[in-house]
From TrEMBL:
NCBIfam families in the cross-refs: sigma70-ECF
Highest taxon, organism lineage: Bacteria
Residues annotated as domain HTH luxR-type: 121-148
A molecular function (GO) term: DNA binding
Annotated source species: Lederbergia citri
Protein name, entry field: RNA polymerase sigma factor
A Pfam family annotated for this UniProt entry: Sigma70_r4_2
Family according to the record: Belongs to the sigma-70 factor family. ECF subfamily.
InterPro entries: RNA_pol_sigma-70-like, RNA_pol_sigma-70_dom, RNA_pol_sigma70_r2, RNA_pol_sigma70_r4_t2, RNA_pol_sigma_r2, RNA_pol_sigma_r3/r4-like, Tscrpt_reg_LuxR_C, WH-like_DNA-bd_sf
Amino acid sequence: MKSFAGLRVHEIVQTYSDTLIRIAVQQTKNMSEAEEIVQEVYMTLMRQKKPFDSEVHLKAWLIKVTFNKCKDYFKSSRVKKTVPMTEEMTFIAKEEQIVLPEIFELDPNERSIVYLHYYEGYTTAEIANLLDMKVNTVGSKLRRVRMKLKAFLEEGS
């Protein structure tokens, strides 16, 4: 059986599927499309020839490929009109079960940065690497998103 960074495929699926699904759902706003995208990510992994240096490298690769597959999804003819946020998407906020509907109003790049920073704990430099952006761009987008969300929260209270 094929293994990557010392993990077998079934271990990788068990370990990273929740993370990859959360990324794909917050990008596409569609659970079934998100599941399909994650399947495509695993198919891409199976075709991967280069070894991974570590499990951290593997995780970063999986996240990057998921974001790229989401971009491909928006370029494809599969995209329909925006799907409204549903209760099934509330799992995105991990244990807290808190999802600000305003997060889904952000553009996909902003949602990606928010997700990677607050949910996965990546630094701005790591996010810049994952999303092929400049560190300063990630930092300024993160600051703008914080201001937008603060304004949303202040309006609601």
